[in-house]
UniProtKB/TrEMBL annotation:
Any single Pfam family the record assigns to this protein: HMA
Name of protein: HMA domain-containing protein
InterPro entries: HMA_dom, HMA_dom_sf
Gene3D superfamilies associated with the record: 3.30.70.100
Amino acid sequence: MSCSGCSGARVEGIDKYEVSLEKQRVSVTTDLPRETIFEAIKKTGKPVKDAPTA
């Protein structure tokens, strides 16, 4: 993420999200399926990697 493009990738049902442009990472808290979130991010043209949940 070299710009704030992913910051505008909104999906109804997300409880909380954090975008780190420095780390190129998005952290999302939601009850929605992962694939729903992944597809929204993919639409921005950014790569998606699954990370372990906390």
